[in-house]
Amino acid sequence: MITTPRGVAVYRDPYSNLKQTDALFTRIPEIATNVRRLWFNGFYAEETDRYILSIISECPNLELLSVPWTVARRGTPTDRIDLLNVGTGVGKPLYSLEIQGICLPMSQATDLEQDDTPDPLQDLSVDFSQLKRLKIFGNTLHKPICDSDLATIARSATNLTCLDLTNISTVSVAGLLTLVKASASTLEVLEHSPRSSDGFFHPHQGRLESGEHICELLTSLPKMRDLSISIPNMCADLFSNPTVNWSGECLIRAVDICLHDSLSRPEALSATLQAARSLISARERVRHQLHIELFFAGCIFEPEKKLVHGDFTMASLVSYGQWPISHEPSGKGPYGSSGYYGKEEEGWVAVTEKDYLYAVGRGWVMM
Question: Is the peptide bond before 120 cis (omega within 30 degrees of 0)?
Answer without folding.
Answer: no
